[in-house]
Amino acid sequence: MSLLIAVPESRWCRTRARECRTMAESLRVQMAREQMLKAASDYDRMARDAEQREIAQGLSHLRALATGR
């Protein structure tokens, strides 16, 4: 039986952005490099969005604990 550990979506997206940038460094074709950098930028945007959701969820959870709901 394997243990699954939840990774926050924001961290997952940041990791993918770094991987895309690393891959882009090794590409010789300019168009391919630009596409990888665009993907990295998109992952960064998704990470920022996910961070905002994660913060909101955390605050909602804390409010629920504070009010006993």
Structural overview:
With 69 residues, the protein is mostly helical. It has one domain. The protein is built from two helices and no strands. Helix 1 runs antiparallel to helix 2. The protein is elongated and about 60 Å long. It starts with 8 loop residues before the first helix and ends with a helix. 7% of the residues are buried. The model has no long low-confidence stretch (mean pLDDT 88).
In short:
Helix content is 81%, strand content 0%. The protein has 69 residues and is an all-alpha fold.
Relevant terms:
69 residues, mainly alpha, 81% helix
- Approximate helicity band: over 70%
User: How would a crystallographer describe the biggest sheet?
Assistant: none
pLDDT averaged over residues = 88
Uncertain spans, ≥5 residues at pLDDT below 50?
A: none
What is the β-strand count?
0
Beta-strand content estimate: under 5%
Give the CA-based shape: elongated
Class from helix and strand fractions: mainly alpha
Order of helices and strands: HH
The oligomeric state is: single chain
Total number of distinct structural domains: 1
Distance between the termini: 34 Å
Rg, Cα atoms, Å: 17 Å
- Work out the helix count: 2
What's the arrangement of secondary structure elements?
Blueprint: H1 9-26, H2 30-67
Helix pairs in contact: 1-2
